[in-house]
Each structure stands twice: as structure tokens, then as C-alpha cells.
Design brief:
About 40% of the residues lie in helices and about 15% in strands. It is an alpha/beta fold.
């Protein structure tokens, strides 16, 4: 019998997940007989349940499946494509659990009015999901932590007393930059995202780390904020350099699309004369010509996983004492038509 089974408190869904080596969401799917779990994983969860002597808490199960489960969703992301995927993931997961969502929007990437946030908390929400950049906003997190509201922070890194669900931003940017160098690009441009988000720093770090590994690679960096408008300004700045980069990596698809627009305005052929790549793999990546090579960040799944983990924590309040938890999902590079080897002549 495991150590967990000898604890004086009853085992929780979190304990079962740890015993089986899966996420609480997977345990919930097995308990509720939902599809989407492979037989070996289902068997591992069943063994963990038997080993721990876990019995679903009927009151908690009622809580997490009733219409009284109210989840706040706060967001202020300038990328409409990102937010479309994010909200779709939240809505789809909420619909399977009968959860009621209450949305609160900030403007211009800024937190919503503090009074509005406090009113939302006072309305009796069960938990809060924060989309980037508000998932790392000190002003938002201070209010939520003070009220002891369970928090799921999407795209955030290392937030205390919160469930963080993200990808490995640094590794993803590193791999994309390696891909550009392997194509023969030695003059690389990079557009940084919102300076208030750790993901922006992580992506820049990954880009620079890959560039440093190859002799002869030069880099030029321009600041953006994840908006299309900032991508236009950054694209202009990068392409005015002498010599200009032969490849530009923008740290989201909206800014990459803006760089492509700047290139077209300058009568540069993408990708024959300029390679452009992005990050996120939102609809923006395929709604322009040429469609973007980009890092696929599973935004819908990140949002759905965040809601599932948040519901699990609400059902097992003792979990809140364990502090910050980090859940890293996989990314993949999607190759499309915006990349090619560098031109023979300087731009």
C-alpha cells in the first residue's frame, strides 16, 4: 500500500493523478466514463484508485458538475485570433461540466478596472482563469490571492499559488531558430512580444541561444507587444537595417503577418527574398499569403486543461495549500510556405 493511502485524510483526485502519473483531468475522464483515454492509461488510473482506496466525493462531484460552478475568465490579449482559440477551449470544456462562465475584459492589454474585478470576486465565483497577459498581472493576482480564489494562469511561468498551464516557450523558439539557421540564414531578425510577459523573454532567450551556437550568425531585435500594429513598426525597423535580415522570426502570428505586410509594401517576395516565421499557429497564420511557418501552441487545449485542473482544485480544496503547479504541454513546428533559403544577394 502506498504512503498516500496511509494518510489520515481521504485521498483526492489529485492523489490519484499523482499515483497514476497522469493529469487530474485524465482521472476525471476515467471516473466519469468519458472517451478520449487510451486503455493502458485507463487501467493505470483504475489501479491507482484501488491502491489508494479513493472514493469520489459526491458533494465535490455535485459541485464540479452543477450550474452553480461559476468560473471567471479575464482577458485583455490584443490578438483576436489567440483569444478566439482561447475562449473556444474554455467554452468547450465548460460545456462538458455544466460550468457557468463569467467574462471580464480589460482594454489595451491592461487589467480591468479594480472595482469591476473585485465585484466579480464578490459575486461568488468558484475560481478564475486568466489569459495572457493578465495571467502574470501583479494587480490582478493580488486581488485574487487576497480573496483566496483558485487561479489557473494560461501561458504563465511560475506564479505562486496558481495553476500554470503553458508550453516550453524557450525551447520552441530555440528549435524554430535552429531551423532557420539550417536553411542557411545567418542574418536573423526577431520581434519581441509584450515586455510584461515572461513568455516574451523566454522566446527571445531561445532565439538568442540558438543564434550563439553557430559562427557567423548576426541578430537584430525589435520590440513589439503582440499586436499587429507593433509588428508593422518592428518590421519596418528590421528591414531598414543595413544589411537587412534574410529571415525574421516574430514571437506571435499577428506580428509575423504584419512583417509580411511590410515586406509586400517594400516589394519583397516572401519567401524568395525574405523568410518570415511566427508563433502560436492561430488562424492568422493561414489567412494571408504565403501562409506562415509557425510554432503550434495548442491554445484551445491549454485553455481546456486549465479549466479542468481548476475544477479539480475546486473539488479538492486541500490542494490549494501545495502552492504553484506547472503543467507544460507539447508544441510542434508547422512548416508552410513562408520559408526558403536566403537569397544570393543582400536585401
Amino acid at each position: 500500500m502506498s504512503e498516500r493511502a496511509r494518510r489520515p485524510r481521504s485521498p483526492t483526485i489529485i492523489d490519484v493523478a499523482a499515483e497514476a502519473g497522469v493529469s487530474p483531468m485524465t482521472v476525471s475522464r476515467v471516473i466519469n466514463g468519458r472517451a478520449g483515454v487510451i486503455p493502458t492509461t485507463r487501467a493505470a488510473v483504475q489501479r491507482a484508485i484501488e491502491t489508494l482506496g479513493y472514493t469520489p466525493n459526491l458533494a465535490a462531484r455535485s459541485l464540479v458538475t452543477s450550474a452553480e460552478l461559476k468560473i471567471g475568465v479575464i482577458y485583455a490579449n490584443p490578438s483576436a485570433a489567440f483569444m478566439s482559440d482561447f475562449l473556444t477551449g474554455v467554452f468547450e470544456e465548460a460545456s462538458t461540466r455544466g460550468a457557468r462562465l463569467i467574462l471580464l475584459k480589460g482594454e489595451g492589454g491592461l487589467p480591468p478596472d479594480q472595482a469591476a474585478l473585485e465585484d466579480l470576486v464578490a459575486s461568488g465565483i468558484s475560481g478564475m482563469i486568466c489569459a495572457p497577459p493578465l495571467s502574470e498581472s501583479p494587480a490582478v493576482l493580488k486581488v485574487l490571492h487576497k480573496a483566496r480564489v483558485p487561479v489557473a494562469a494560461v501561458g504563465a511561468h511560475g506564479i505562486e499559488n496558481a495553476i500554470c498551464v503553458r508550453i516550453d516557450d524557450r525551447l520552441a523558439a530555440y528549435e524554430m531558430t535552429q531551423r532557420l539557421i539550417a536553411m542557411g540564414h545567418l542574418r536573423l531578425g526577431f520581434v519581441v512580444g509584450n515586455p510584461d510577459q515572461v513568455a516574451s523573454t523566454e522566446r527571445l532567450d531561445g532565439f538568442l541561444a540558438a543564434a550563439r551556437e553557430t559562427d557567423g550568425v548576426t541578430t537584430i531585435v525589435a520590440q513589439g507587444d503582440f499586436s499587429f500594429a507593433s509588428g508593422l513598426a518592428a518590421g519596418d525597423a528590421l528591414l531598414q537595417a543595413n544589411p537587412a535580415p534574410t529571415a525574421i522570426f516574430a514571437s506571435n502570428d499577428d506580428m509575423a503577418a504584419a512583417v509580411v505586410s511590410v515586406a509586400h509594401r517594400r516589394h519583397l517576395d516572401v519567401p524568395r527574398e525574405l523568410t518570415v516565421v511566427g508563433f502560436d499557429d492561430t488562424t492568422a497564420a493561414v489567412m494571408l499569403w504565403p501562409p506562415l511557418t509557425t510554432v503550434h501552441q495548442p491554445v484551445r487545449r491549454l485553455a481546456a486543461e486549465a479549466l479542468a485542473l481548476l475544477v479539480a482544485e475546486i473539488a479538492a480544496p486541500a490542494r490549494a495549500a501545495s502552492g504553484q503547479s506547472d503543467h507544460v504541454l507539447d508544441h510542434v513546428i508547422i512548416a508552410r510556405e513562408s520559408t526558403a533559403p536566403p537569397p544570393e544577394r543582400p536585401l
